[in-house]
Each structure stands twice: as structure tokens, then as C-alpha cells.
Design brief:
Blueprint (H helix, E strand, L loop, with lengths): L8 H12 L18 H12 L2 H4 L3 H24 L3 E5 L18 E5 L1 H12 L9 E5 L7 H7 L8 E5 L8 H13 L6 E7 L7 H12 L13 H6 L3 E8 H5 L16 E8 L1
Parallel strand pairs: 1-2, 1-4, 2-3, 4-5
Antiparallel strand pairs: 5-7, 6-7
Helix pairs in contact: 1-2
């Protein structure tokens, strides 16, 4: 459903977030990211950025996207929490730390879903910096090869009758079309009307360009291979056919505009990347 190998991109994205914290003005401030990575890796990435090597080899735009995406979804979570939100499900949570650093999420049940191996390492690392862990955070270990997501969520206290935000970040592009459909069907059929899903995806047309080749190389280095993409013009009909309404797709320029300012102006942003959101009809 949201299948991913344990600690595949999760570790790589944590390195990117930890390296971002070494900047004077980080776009996404995650003080816990360093807990999951070797200092050498974070400082090494920041070094190759500072000397321009990451731009030269073409990975800097995807690094920028990873950071902009982090803050964009962060701000959406804050907005939804302030409006009205009963619970949050983070599908493929990896080493996400928003539940521990966004004040607006205090008291809102957050279900972090991922492979048990990743979950165990995450909890061990967090206990060194956050003790005790917040009572509103529920770790839902799911082996997507063998476990039923709904059963595991319900056993952890998930409710199907309340307004829910599903955060599905850095996962969809590595699934099959059947895996995409199963995940969207679960959200549409097992959450209250008006619940929200947010996910990122790649433009299938862009993947055929030179920039798309860089995206494929970058994701391969991170331990994954792109298997699914979508034409943004088809997002609305695609999601409506799967039980959603009010679909929105935010492209690279729009999602980065609020963040690539001041000291971060001029940072190269990947093209062909989008963030989608929609509500359960």
C-alpha cells in the first residue's frame, strides 16, 4: 500500500534536513534531524553544497525540493490543525519529526506509519533527545508485504469517523499504480468526509527530459527507483475517480516562492515536482 524498504530514503532525507540546519537561515528547521544521521554525512553534504559541487553534479535542485517540500507540508499541517483536525496519519513516516516540534499538533493524535525496523531505530534515536516521547504520537509498525494497514491503525487507536489529515510524503513515486490505488482507496473509504490527503509526485512528462534523468539518478542514490508519475493536468479527474474532491496541484515555482527568499534566494529548484492535496468526497 505504501510499501518502501526500511530506512531507504528515510535516512537520506534525514541527512538533507540535518545539512540544512548547518545553514545560517534554514528553510526547514529540524533540530532533531541530526539524531538520525552520522555527523560526517551531514557536514559532508553541506561541504559539497558550499563549494558548488552539488550544483555541478546536478543534485542540488532535488535537495532544494526536499527541503521546500518539508516546509510546505509543515505549513499545511499547521493550517489544517488550526482550522479543525481530529487526527493525523503520516504514511511512510521515516524519520519525520514534525509531531515533536510543531506546537499546533500538541494533543492531536498522530499515527506514524512505517516499517517496524525504521520505527525501532527512530524511537531509539528520539529517546536520547526527547524523553518521554509525546503521548499523542502513536508508532504504527507495518510490514506492507504482510500486514493490513487498517487493522494496524485501528489497533493503535485510529478512528474512521473523524476528520483526518493524511501526510503521504516521498512515497508515491516509488509505488506501482496498483499500490497508489490501494492507498487512495483506504483513505477515501476509511476516513470522514472532508478529510485531507497531501502527497508529492513527479510530472511524468518531465521525467522524459534531461532534468528527469537527474531526478532518477538522485532517487537511485537515495535507494529508490521512480515507478509512478502523473500528468498534473490529469490530477483532478484521477483523484475524483478515486473518491476525492477539490484536488489541487502545486508546482515547483509556486511551492518554492514563499521560501526561496533572502539568504535562500537563488537556490536551484527541481522542475517537474508537484505537491497535491484533496479532500475525501
Amino acid at each position: 500500500m505504501v510499501k518502501r524498504r526500511p530506512m531507504s530514503t528515510a535516512k537520506g532525507v534525514a541527512v538533507v534536513r540535518a545539512a540544512e540546519m548547518l545553514r545560517r537561515e534554514p528553510i526547514a528547521a529540524d533540530p532533531y534531524a541530526k539524531s538520525f544521521v552520522l555527523p560526517f554525512n551531514a557536514f559532508g553534504l553541506r561541504f559539497i553544497q558550499s563549494i558548488g559541487l552539488s550544483r555541478l553534479i546536478g543534485i542540488e535542485p532535488m535537495i532544494t525540493f526536499a527541503i521546500v517540500r518539508e516546509q510546505y507540508v509543515h505549513d499545511l499541517m499547521v493550517s489544517e490543525a488550526r482550522a479543525r483536525l481530529d487526527q493525523i496519519v503520516i504514511l511512510g513516516a521515516g524519520f519525520d519529526t514534525r509531531a515533536y516540534r510543531i506546537p499546533e499538533l500538541d494533543g492531536i493524535p498522530v499515527f506514524e506509519v512505517d516499517h517496524p525496523v525504521t520505527q525501532a531505530q527512530k524511537q531509539a534515536a528520539l529517546k536520547g533527545v526527547i524523553n518521554p516521547l509525546p503521548a499523542n504520537v502513536h508508532f504504527v509498525g507495518v510490514d506492507f508485504e504482510t500486514d493490513d494497514l487498517g487493522e494496524r491503525l485501528r489497533a493503535s487507536g485510529y478512528r474512521e469517523d473523524v476528520l483526518t489529515l493524511f501526510v503521504w510524503q516521498g512515497v508515491s513515486m516509488y509505488l506501482t499504480a496498483a499500490g497508489i490505488d490501494r492507498t487512495l482507496a483506504f483513505v477515501a473509504q476509511h476516513s470522514a468526509k472532508g478529510s485531507v490527503i497531501v502527497f508529492d509526485y513527479f510530472d511524468g512528462r518531465a521525467l522524459k527530459t534531461a532534468e528527469g534523468a537527474v531526478i532518477r539518478i538522485f532517487t537511485s542514490v537515495m535507494g529508490e527507483h521512480v515507478t509512478w508519475a502523473l500528468d498534473p493536468g490529469q490530477l483532478g479527474p484521477f483523484l475524483e475517480a478515486r473518491g476525492f474532491t477539490g484536488a489541487r496541484s502545486t508546482n515547483a515555482a509556486a511551492m518554492s516562492a514563499p521560501y526561496l527568499t533572502g539568504a535562500n534566494a537563488g537556490r536551484p529548484m527541481a522542475k517537474g515536482v508537484h505537491i497535491a492535496s484533496a479532500r475525501v468526497a
